[in-house]
Amino acid sequence: MLLTASISLRQTNDYAHNHGKPIEPRNLLRIFKKFLKDASLPEIRFHDLRHTAASLMLQEGIHPKIVQERLGHSRVSLTLDIYSHVLPAMQQEAAAKLDELLTPIAVDLQYFEE
Predict the structure, then answer these.
(1) Which of 19, 59, 60, 110 is the most buried (most CB within 10 A)?
(2) Structural domain of residue 68, as residue ranges?
């Protein structure tokens, strides 16, 4: 349903001016709210899209430096401070992977005997 709504929004050409100038922020917000309503989606703040994108990128393993650059943050530490709520799941995943790497493997010692 979201894809259909997105396509219909693009087809209406409501989000861009024909002369190429940026759309007024209040008009963008009005169009965004109309889009959500037409798509039967819950009302969210426009800024929530940015937050969602950042959280999803981090959850998918995109390097925090890349996320920082995409968001325009001055330091990667700022990005990590803001999106630290995503990190607990990532910490668990990293611990599980490290556990796999450190799990002893069976070795037949007869190959090492003289």
Answers:
(1) 59
(2) 45-101
Residues 72, 33, single domain; the answer is no
pLDDT digits (tens, 9 = 90+) for 96-110: 888 888 887 777 777
Distance from the Cα of residue 59 to its chain's centroid: 7
Token pair 């920082």: residue: 68
Which helix H or strand E contains 26, and what residues bound it? helix 25-38
Do 35 and 20 lie in a common domain?
yes
* Pair (21, 50) in one structural domain: no
Q: Model pTM? A: 0.59
* Pair 81, 37 in one domain: no
Residue 37 covered by a domain: yes
d(CA 24, CA 19): 13
Round to whole Å and give the CA distance between 108 and 114.
Answer: 13
* Cβ neighbour number for residue 67 with a 10 Å cutoff: 21
Gap between the Cα atoms of 113 and 47, Å rounded? 66
The residue type of 9 is L
